[in-house]
Amino acid sequence: MTQVTSIRDLKGYFELEQLQKRLIAAALNPRDKAFIAVLARDGIRISEAIQLKEGDIDSKRGTLTIVRLKERLKLKCPNCGEILGKRHLFCPGCGNKVDQALREKVKQRRQRTIPVDRYTLRLLHEYLQWRRKFPYRGPLVFPFTRQRGWQLVEKLGRRIGIKGLHPHSLRHLLATMWVSQGLDTKKLQVLLGHASISTTMEYVDSNLEQLRCEYEKLWQNKEDETTETKDYKGKERA
User: Fold this and answer.
1) Cα atoms found within 13 Å of the Cα of residue 78, Cβ hemisphere only
2) Which domain holds residue 127?
3) FRET pair for 144, CA 20 to 30 Å: which of 138, 166, 182, 192?
């Protein structure tokens, strides 16, 4: 019987590398291998993965163009149409009290281009070649629902003995690994597609042990410099 390990027990860089390899090896067809690779090695959201189109893959440059469509609720004053914040009791435009704001759903489109490694590109190419024998001819790389993708990740996790694995687990582990390797926070923000740097900082804060090690190194270097200076001055006087 396969031993089941909770996803919460998976921490650190080496565990993630092993996890990626095992998940890809556990996938039974080129589509699932490519899907897992895109999530685990590029850190994109599952909603972005299922919106990925063939034209978004640039093999020559080694990049993926990630498009994110997000639905946002916009509040408006019922009297003058001025845009309101969540805490507005009075309209900043007409000054009237707002008892019930008008609600309007607006779709926001964000786009970013990120690098993709050769291994993931190869898996994507093999998958796109393999699927030509099937009738689907649409532009989407992974033509299935968010729920189907979620179930696939969870199923592959259980297949290799990991309980509670989901797409955001892969994204979180990858981001933590990048921070451990010293990736600049602003660059991490671009790779993950965060609108606010405060969201990115959550991954930095989650890696407190790494931060502690770097902090202690700084003080150790300072102490070494002080010792060297004292030794030098002592020799100079002698």
Assistant:
1) 8
2) 5-62+116-206
3) 192
